[in-house]
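User: Last request for today: this protein with calcium ion, please.
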Amino acid sequence: MLNIEVQLCGLVFDIILIFFILRHESVGLYSEKIFKLCLMVYTVCIFLDITSIFAIVYSAFIPQLLTEAICKIYLVSLLMASFMGFIYTCSDVLHLRESSEFQTGIRVVLAAGVLFIMMTPISYFHSGRTVYSYGPSTVVTYIFAPMFIIGSLVFTFVYGKQMSAHRRRGIRAWMAIEIVAAVIQFVFPQALLVGFGSSIGLFILYSELENPEVYLDRITGRFSFDTFNLYLKQEFAYIKKFSSIIVCNEEDLKLDDELEKSILVEMSEYLASFANAKLFRLSNNDFALIYDTKEEIAMDEIESAVNLDVIRNRFRQPWAGNVYLDTHFLYMPNSGAVSSVEEYIDVYLRNRDSFIKEEEMKLLDDTASQHVREYKQMILEIKDAISSDRFEVFYQPIYSINTETFVSAEALARMRGRDGKLVMPDKFIPIAEETGLIEQIGEKIFSKACNCIRKYELKNKGIEYVEVNLSISQCENPMLSVKYDEIMKNACIEPRDISLEITESSTLNQKRILLDNMNKLMNLGVSFALDDFGTGESNLNYIVDMPVKIVKFDRTMIQDYFKNEKARVVMDATVKMIKELGLSIVAEGVETEEQFEKIRSMGIDYIQGYYFSKPLSENDFIKFIDEKNKITGQ
Ligand code: C2E
Ligand code: CA
Ligand code: CA
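Assistant: Here's the final one, the structure of the complex with calcium ion:
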């Protein structure tokens, strides 16, 4: 009986692994390719191990040169195997993968090892069940192979941060097993453990991270979002071009679990039928099709564009027989629009979250990614401006038709850039609202407005109250009234010096918290105004429900009044109704004398617009009021 049971076991292990791996479609990740190559080399290595044992046992019947050659080729394959393990270890460390000096260096070491093994003499021993080779050639292998094995182990410490924790652990276990097996075999040459040890090591790696299943999404069996990240990371690292179609479904399909799963499976099967693309299941029930474009960029772009139309048509049809979904699409014809996987994900997520109802498809091109860059930049600038207190308040005077003086002003936020330039609210308010930063900005503006009221004794200048904007997310905060009360107390002003401008909130729950906040603040003496009236965001019902004292007609409504007959009729009737409800009206955006005269004759109470003044800095505002409101007793 030959001493090959252990090797046979290893061989069986490797063959099982190969079988599992070939069963699955491959994503095409670099580490995945290297792992397959490793597996191949290791399998050949075990096979040669067995062959060499046969060659030694039956050396009497074959030429000595041939036996020696087989033994040496086995040693070369052993060296190759440790070399492949080393390459695999380096696969996560991009700068090593890319460094030609490093790559040349390790290949020179490998070549030197192979040369020495082939050039130096080898002997072999066979007695009963004990079979092994020895001599200088074997010693050379025992010198060179450990360099790669120990090198791998050392690299998992030196470059550990650049590897995934799984890979680090897997490689360490693998290398440790190889070292133990090699030491045992070195001390007891008849215990031929190296090949088997390697198989076990590979098996551990396979189960830890090269198992193709880890790349797959559980429900659909398609590549997962993590895999998508890894794959794109590789594509960008090698500056490969691809085009992509992202199918965006509602985060919550609002179906029962089983139905949802079966729809996702049906969808993924349909999308997988586009043979030239790789399909990924992203988070949020989204799917991505990636077309690697390589050289023929134009061709693949056309293919993906044509498929996009086909896919859009299919998604207008029902799933699982009768379920219609509101699916949107993102199409990036050329990955050159973004420069990294992080940026790709940013552009994808930002655009997926900003679809408007009727919009079925968005093109992700240079402009789209530029917008996302600016958006992210603006978030940083806002945070920076908050922490270094670079928000200022401008005041736009509000004129009373009744007293013919300026009785109020609206506090409007401005952001002072690092370069000293003023940034207007349309650039930062919507982003601050989306990111929740508006809460901090709103508070700062409020507190500054309060201080201004106190500092300049605005009441004595004829300014009865200051209007300050509240954004929806502020109104949703149950702590709003407590905070604002505290700010007013700190500034030593009366709550009736303040009128807060609110806009219509969409959900019932928002409305409930808003009402609660309003009641608490009104009990203190704060009053409320409804902003943006007439923009489609607000309707008459809202005025009835909400305890506001003032309704602010939006600029667009005033402008329409002078442009179109229907708007005129509607506005006249609206003014009448609001007056009957006992509320006051501010007309915003009055720019010309003609507009002013007309508005004055309509029964509107207050006017805010460029006709009188643009929003002014604190100093300019005080000068303005001092000059215009002379009549009030100072
Ligand atoms: P808004 O509350 O409707 O404020 C009125 C806007 O109309 C101001 O723009 C003002 O400068 C502008 N405006 C006033 N009269 C005229 C006019 O005759 N012609 C024209 N063309 N425009 C006029 P601003 O200051 O750029 O503010 C824009 C928006 O930013 C505000 O609209 C408000 O929604 C938001 N905003 C400003 N400050 C704050 C703040 O402190 N908090 C919150 N939540 N939002 C703010
Ligand atoms: Ca306002
Ligand atoms: Ca307004």
